[in-house]
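Dear support,

I submitted the protein below through the web form. The confirmation email said the job was done, but the results page showed an empty box. After a refresh the structure appeared. I'm attaching both so you can tell me whether what I see now is the final result or a partial one.
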Amino acid sequence: MIKRDAVLGTLYDCVDSGNTIFVFGAGSGLSARAAHMAGVHLISVYSTAILRMKGLNSLTCALPVANANQLLLDEGGVIVRQAGCTPCIAGIAAQDPFHPVGEMLDKVEKMGFCGVSNEPFAGIYGSWFADLLEEYGMGFSAELDMLRQAAERGLLTMGWAFDEEQACRLVENGIDIVGVMVMDGPGKYSAGKTEEERLREAVLEVRKMCQAALKINPQAILITHGDPFYDVKTATESLISTGAVGYASGSSGERLPSMDGIVKTCQEFLNM
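What the results page shows now:
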């Protein structure tokens, strides 16, 4: 297992050299092997990625139809082994009463993960339900506590924030990598907005979260992710003048290229 300090050293060297940190979300061993061959800095393995590489919608993991931690335990070992020497972090559902945090940390360490993230996250449900989960001890604070426990073990930590307060709490607690998440969704939330307007508003949200975090720790490693940042061009916009130094792909790095590539190849064979 690659050690936390070695990973952080590589990430800081990347930033110091003016390059962008790229975290690849992997839901299959084949994806992880390809990402390793491409030279990504970090591979994140989590339930949503595993489900989407089975052809299911990412939102499936937000419904009571699958166990996020069990999916990770069932599939994660294969993915880590295919990642070679590229460091991998495990997305843990901190609120799962059937897979206690301590036991999950034991297992992911044995599987070869060098760190963890709070994924899935309560913030995906929106403020009303996320606040309700927080009230009952199953919200963001539970995720932060899981990350602190991981840090005490010497594991790398990557925490996802949905607003300025969460970003600041992650930095205050010494989380190694802070991901700023923007989920604007389809339908009524984006109705009447052009793609450029959606992107502009998302970048503004990223900037607010990043600037709040950097006031606490100017050396914080901040990365971006979210619906509006779906390709190289839009991901680049999330980094310009925001304070973020990296990007984490989801469907943009794995599902979409896989679908497009297979469709194109099949069509070429059909045209023989």
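Response: this is the final, complete result; the empty box was a page-load delay. Residues 21-270 form a domain with the TIM Barrel fold (CATH 3.20.20.70).
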